């Protein structure tokens, strides 16, 4: 099914007699593949409002992300939360949609400074499991009274309703960018260096570590963005903070963009065999957790708070990690362990109650929004 309007989508949901698998662009099928008819949102597309002066954009959920980025780029603006492109990692095709980005709360390296996708979400329209059109939020940032359905829908992966429209806050592109590169640090030293940099007054917009960089050696990346004079000053200060011949500053915008696309899209894990796990943890715990897991490949983002790990196929990463302050999601691969981490009993009960309220018939199969 590919409805061409919100009204058609609502009618399709109301008439559904079996589970539906909601699909945007088909690029991030994490946890999907369950039984049920496919309900595509790509027929509900287009930017309906863009006010560069107000830093506001409203678009139908099926609008391709590339189209939105092109519209923003023409006005020197961008989505500050830097959404990841999952296609290389998952081996998928198609075009990512803005509804899929919001439904999965896709947020890239800049999250350490700017925040997540949900932090830029101003309003939503969606169709719940009864076929009712629900609207929440608006087009300005403000305090919310009552239920904040805007934040609830971000990351819900289509289990509560089908997004039809999203309103987003956008930001200007920076005048300049630079990246401080530190060669040769072992994982623990790299996490300590990233913590030191993020705790400095130099306002980083990215902190990542590749144990195996493009040239085969460890590489730590610290990004700064903003006005040209400020970027030059902060990059030099960051470099001086660590000193030594292993520290250098990359100031070419193209080279910096390429390096951070590599981090954002987890390029070192594209192709090849094995499962890929996404681990959220305390940065200081990350090196020890990686040592427990013994992965074939690893990438640290968010200063170590996000770890991407490629393991042998079928490995239960959660069992190897044991108890830790965080959680692990299997992003790629198949196995008997659940894709998403189990919730504590009180949280699981709350999740069931919320889902029963928005999808009382159980029409939306969990985790199938690609």
UniProtKB/TrEMBL annotation:
Pfam families: FAD_binding_4
Lineage: Bacteria, Pseudomonadati, Pseudomonadota, Alphaproteobacteria, Rhodobacterales
Entry keywords, A to Z: FAD, Flavoprotein
Keyword Nucleotidyltransferase: no
Domain of life: Bacteria
Residue stretches spanning the membrane: none
InterPro entries: FAD-bd_PCMH, FAD-bd_PCMH-like_sf, FAD-bd_PCMH_sub2, FAD-linked_Oxase-like_C, Oxid_FAD_bind_N
Domain FAD-binding PCMH-type: 1-173
Organism of origin: Sagittula stellata (strain ATCC 700073 / DSM 11524 / E-37)
Keyword Hydrolase: no
Stated name of the protein: Glycolate oxidase, GlcE subunit
GO molecular function annotations of the record: catalytic activity; FAD binding
SUPFAM superfamilies registered for this protein in UniProt: FAD-binding/transporter-associated domain-like, FAD-linked oxidases, C-terminal domain
